[in-house]
Amino acid sequence: MSGELADLTNLVSRLQRSSNENTALQHAWATPQANSTAEASASHTEADSLNLDLLQILQQTLQENEWLKLVLAHMLHGVVITDPNQPDNPIIFANAAFYRMTGYTEAEVIGRNCRFLSGAGTDPEAIATLREAIAQQRPVTCSLLNYRKDGTPFWNEVVINPVFDQSGHLIYFVGLQSDITARKHIEGELERLRHRNELILNSAGEGIYGLDQHGKTTFVNPAAARMLGWQVDELIGQPISTILADPQSAMLEAIGLATGSMTERASHIDLNAAPSASAPTPCFQDGQIHHANGEVFRRKDGTIFPVEYISTPIWENGQLLGTVILFQDITDRKRSEEALRDSEERYALAVQGANDGIWDWNVKTGEVYYSPRWKAMLGYAEDEIGNTLEEWVSRVHPDDRYWMQRELEAHLNGLTPHFEHEHRVRHRNGSYRWFLSRGLAVRDTLGKATRLAGSQTDITGRKHVEEQLLHDAFHDVLTGLPNRALLMDRLRQSLELARKDSDYLFAVLFLDIDRFKLLNDSLGHMTGDCLLVAIAQRLAVCLRPGDTIARLGGDEFVILLDRISALSNATAVADRIQRELSVPFKLAEHEIFTSASIGIALGTADYEWSEDLLRDADTAMYRAKAHGKARYEVFDRGMHLRAVALLQLENDLRRALDRQEFRLCYQPIVSLRDLRILGFEALIRWHHSERGVISPTEFIPIAEETGLIVPIGHWALYEACRQMQDWHQRFPMLPPLMVQVNVSGKQFSSSLVEEIEQILVQTRLRPNQLKLELTESILMENAEQAVSILKNLKHLGLQLSIDDFGTGYSSLSYLHRFPIDTLKVDRSFINKLDSDGEQLAIVRTIMTLAWNLGIDVVAEGVETGKQLAQLKSLQCDAAQGYFFAAPLDPIKAEQLLSGEPPWRQQKSLASL
Fold first, then answer.
1. Which pTM does this prediction carry?
2. Can you tell me the distance from the alpha carbon of 459 to that of 421, in angstroms, rounded to the nearest whole number?
């Protein structure tokens, strides 16, 4: 193309010279240009004549310049001459190459503008560029998509030069047109290849660095820039030392950039040092491929990271042009390698120092590796056990060997996720030790196990602990006897035998040690525990080898008599137990006497649950304890019915307060000096919705046992105070009366003081009009605490009375410390007062004691005039009983208060 451009330049020059020599041509081309505006309407005839003159001049010029003619005829590219002085700049000459290139003939071309070669695909911007250059009368070169006569497109490279005369007037344009379609295709392919290669390089995960022969950066892909923390544009033109953390790096050595020889490099490299700014101008020395795994690159922020790289030189015609560096960040790999080294070291240390034995079975070869620890656990040296599986299996206990091999095979066949089994292995000394073996198989692509490795842990100690725990789970820690869990299991077994065999009979004996709590509290829990152990040993002597004795807890024992022939066998054992326990126990310096209350229940197929059998024996035991202790009772169905009735009574008792079923009755307390009413004792009654009135002797013990006595007692206190205050207001003419209320042991606590204080405020009753009655047992249960509580009650202004005096245990040393106002002599001493001299002496003694202590005396249960006469002769202060009045409801009590009491109307009483 450059040669033909030179030819075109020569052609233009020769045409200019020819035109300068021809005055007519110069005048013809100059005139239209100079007078284009004035003669814009000139006829086409004149233009055609002028064109004809130009063609003649051109033909004449070509004939006179043979060399120019030959050039135009043999040029490979088309030559077109246009006349800019004619409308639409028509073609006035084209060479043969142009006709061949476009497929048009001379007749079809001459006189037309070149735009007929354009088509739908021609770039409008390129056309605009051409037009702008022509209008500005300057040379232009551009590429256009043109179309041949047959419609086929081709790429046309157009070079247009203007031709001026000596006066500087434009006379024509000479254009050189070249078909560059093939070149365009090649350029397109090259562009696609370049784009594809660029995409490949830019999308590569590895960093790619291009350097020229001076070590300057010519190319950086995004991955490299991202790893280095730079933008791509920032790295272009920078020396490779920009990214190197070590100014003495092996990479610089390879490309001749190092500032010193390798032998002079320091043994310790500071990876945080800044890149050297004094590195010499680089020049490649060896032109070899280099692969390194220990280079360190520096990011833009100064941090460093290890890389693996390959540097490849670029050669062209034997000349080294540069190098390409392909690298990747190997931080994670370095960490993984370090972790692997640590893991391998840990594994080696674990194998050497682990307390567990390690084994590794190569399933393909059958060889097994046993670690030294594995062998030592069995008492062998390292060279005393081979490498076969038999060395292991043959030492497994015969009872465990089958199951151990079965678990191994199951895991090898993929039936279990891992191998785990506990078995006994024979030690070198002949004993068997328990081991836990665990393992995991390695499988090939087909899932077949090729290797099985695992560990062996000595669990002999754990097994012994488990056995002990299992024993403890079913045995009492103190006595070593079976506990409730084991007893219930054996009871279930006995019931199953009874269901299968109608002749099978067994019995259950439920024992409770009498007065054990008193012994425990007085002698201490340690002595109490020793007593329980001793009792367990004596009970065991009374039984046969097949019988079971169990401790349920506390002082309760249960005996299961297996395969008895009759009830008499069970009662005989109960008698034997009582005889054994009647012998005193000698514990340290103490000699202890005790006995047991025993309940007996026969086990038959009628029982569905073992718990029911144990319940019935317990019920019989409570019957024995209620009948005097140190005895046995045999369960019958009536006991169960009574127990159920008591349970129902308890349930009804819990709802009695809400249903307002309780009532208070009032029995008058009469002065024996003048027979006037001093006050009333409030007595509670339960009016059951179905059973009617229930005696306190029936429900009070249940209320005490369940704790329901506390809310019931609170209600009784409040109601008695309220009623007495109401009577004071209704009978103001009477002397102040007093109400006496019984207090339960459950109520007698430090909170009782605050409770009574609130009741007095709510009812507005004066404190000295309320007297609390307490039994001796309540006061003596905790005498020191009782003294404190009684003093606080007296501080409120209340009066205090000991009820049923003489029937309980009293301590005279405490009695004088109790701030008591009244002693109430129990009815058991009064009802025989007129016929039994001994009873009379007891009552006289009580009264003498009370006088000495300055305490009043009230006699309970007075029913006859003779009893009353005796009491008056003994100078008793007051009395109550049916002789005067039965307990009265509030209405009848009011009637008694509103008139003269009937006993005061009797003349015989008045004379006493």
1. 0.42
2. 12
